Amino acid sequence: MRMIDLKDLSVVYSENRSALSHVTLHVEKGEFVFLVGPTGAGKSTMLKVLYREECDIQGMVKVMGFDIPSMHPRDVPKLRRSMGVVFQDFGLLPNKTVFENVAFALRVIGAGRREIRSKTPEALDMVGMTHRCDAFPNQLSWGEQQRVAIARALVNRPSLFIADEPTGNLDPDTSMGIASILEDINSTGTTVIVATHDKHIVDALCKRVVAFNHGCIVRDDPNGRYDIEEKPQVS
Ligand code: ADP
Fold first, then answer.
1. For a pocket test of ligand 1, which of 21, 35, 45, 88 has the largest count of ligand atoms closer than 8 A to its C-beta?
2. What is the pLDDT of residues 112-145, one digit of tens each?
3. CATH value at residue 55
4. Ligand 1 pocket, 44 CB below 6 A?
5. Same-domain status, 34 and 132
6. Does 87 reside within a domain?
7. Which residues 6+ apart lie within 8 Å of 217 measured at CB?
8. In the chain, what are the helix, strand and coil shares in percent, each to the nearest 5?
9. 19 lines ligand 1 (CB under 6 A)
10. Range of the domain at 109
C-alpha cells in the first residue's frame, strides 16, 4: 500500500478558480518530498486535503489506505492519529510548559501516564529541546517554538509527517537545524511531506521536489532543487 495515492484531484473554491487542478501524485512509504511553488500555487491546499481539513474534493485521494473523499467523519480522528502535522500557526498552549504541550498531544488521544512519561522526553530529545522542557512558549524563540511544535507532532510516532512552511521566519542557520530534524524524522522510516519557500533547505537536502504552479504539478524531480537549473547559454 502506498502512503499517498492521488489521481485527478481537483479542489475548486469558487467558480472558475481551482486551488488544485487534476493533480496526480504518488508517494511511497518512507519518502521525503518537498512541495514548492509560488504563493497561491496550491501547496497548503494539498496538505489540507491529506489531513482531510479540505473536504470539497474531486478525484481519488488515498492516504495510508484511507479513502479521503468518502471518509465518514467518525473515522477522521483515526486518520489524524497516524499523522503528525505542523501548520504555520504553531498553536502551542500558552499556559502550558514545553513538556506539557507535547504531553498534551498524547493525553488527548487517551494515552496513560506511563506512556506519556516515556514518549514525551523522547520527542523533546529528538528536536533538541530537553533543556527547555519547563519553559513556557512565550519564553522561547521562534525557532524553539517550531521545534516544540515538531515534537508535539512526532510524539505519537506517526507514519506520515506533514509540515507547512516549517522554516518560515527563521534565519538560515536555524532553518538548517529544523531541516536536519526533518531528515532525522525521515530516517526513522516516517514519510515526510514539507511545503516550503525555503530554497536554502530544499537545495541542501536534495530530496524529491514536487513543484506546483496555479494548482498544477509542473515538475517532479527525484533529487531536485528549488529552481529548475538554468541551462548554460550557447554563444
Ligand atoms: P500556497 O499554499 O501554495 O500558497 P494555497 O493552497 O494556500 O497556496 O492556495 C491556492 C489557491 O486557493 C489560491 O489562489 C488561494 O487564494 C485559494 N484559496 C486558498 N484557501 C482558500 C479558501 N479557503 N477559500 C477560497 N480560496 C482559497
1. 45
2. 999 999 999 999 999 999 999 999 999 999 999 9
3. 3.40.50.300
4. yes
5. no
6. no
7. 23, 24, 25, 210, 211
8. 35, 25, 40
9. yes
10. 94-157
